[in-house]
Amino acid sequence: MKVLIADDHPLLRDALARTLRGVEPQAEVVEAADYAEAAQALRDHAGRFALALLDLHMPGMGGDDGCEGVRRLHQAHGGVPLVVASGELDPRVIRAAFAAGAVAYLPKSEAPALLQQALRAVLAGGSWMPQQALADLRAGVPPPRPDASGLTPRQLDVLKSLMRGLPNKLIARELGLTEGTVKIHIAAILRALQARNRTEAVVVARGLGLGG
Fold first, then answer.
1. Distance of CA 117 to CAs 23, 54, 120, 192, Å?
2. Using N-to-C axis directions, what is the helix angle for 67-76 and 91-100, rounded to 10°?
3. Distances (CA, A) of 153 to 25, 37, 150, 158, 194
4. pLDDT on residue 20
5. Among 3, 7, 48, which residue's Cα sits nearest to residue 22?
6. What is the pLDDT of residue 211?
7. SS3 for 3?
8. CB-based burial of residue 109 (10 Å sphere; 0-12 exposed, 13-18 middle, 19+ buried)?
9. Distance between alpha carbon 89 and the CA centroid of its chain, in Å?
10. Close Cβ partners of 103 (under 8 Å, ≥ 6 residues apart)
11. Do the bridges between strand 2-6 and strand 49-54 make them parallel or antiparallel, or are there none, so unpaired?
12. CA distance 68 to 96
């Protein structure tokens, strides 16, 4: 398993690597110190990362909160689960990171055991949201509106196939993808459109005016 850890602090990269190896002892870690190095690593190892751990405030992430860098990486490498590992605990930033394409948000202040639990969830194809953001949901804070703008061209192709009612096997055949890759793209589509399943995703997509 190959994992990207991108953070401008070497000690934090080392701590995250040790936490990761508590879940996957044989994981191969590729390190990056800023956005440019992270983007280059994702290009150099295209399709081979099981996930990428990203700091929001390393150089080059852009914007006030760093979520623009998450959005750019998601658009360019939508098949790689992006996990934000940050000391930023503002619920608005956490929600913005998910809207930008992150599948999980790990506060660096959390105990290693909880971080490992979150990493296991992501590696199993799930997501992870910290308690701060969950509290927002319970308090009735409205979530970000569904937004397809962060989907990659390939994910839009998969979405159009979903809107035609095609099963995963046919989508994979038509687009020249593996079924596993199709599932990854569908997971990204569901997150972006805030849909619980593919049927809801189609309804939301039509509501956004996306053609089938």
1. 8, 17, 5, 24
2. 20
3. 35, 24, 9, 9, 19
4. 93
5. 3
6. 62
7. strand
8. exposed
9. 18
10. 51, 81, 82, 83, 122, 126, 127, 128, 187, 191
11. parallel
12. 9
pLDDT number for residue 55: 94
Q: How far is CA 138 from CA 55, 80, 93, 103, 134, in A?
A: 27, 29, 17, 20, 6
Residues of the chain with pLDDT under 70: 131-145, 211-212
The CATH code for residues 153-207 is: 1.10.10.10
- Alpha-carbon distance 92 to 84, whole Å? 14
User: One-letter amino acid identity for 79?
Assistant: G
Q: For residues 158 and 24, what is the distance between their CA atoms, to the nearest angstrom?
A: 31
* Beta strands per DSSP E along 38-116: 49-54, 82-86, 104-107
- Residues contacting 121, CB < 8 A, separation 6+: 104, 127, 128
pTM: 0.66
pLDDT of residue 212: 47
Going from N- to C-terminal start, the domains of the chain cover 2-138, 153-207
The domain defined by 2-138 folds into Rossmann fold (3.40.50)
Quote the CA–CA distance of 171 and 164 in Å, as a whole number: 10
Q: Which two tokens stand for residue 151?
A: 């989907």
Could you say which DSSP state residue 66 is in? S
| Per-residue tokens: 106 | 């790990």
For the record, the structure tokens of 170 come out as 């046919």
Tell me how many degrees the CA angle 113-33-151 measures, rounded to the nearest 5: 80
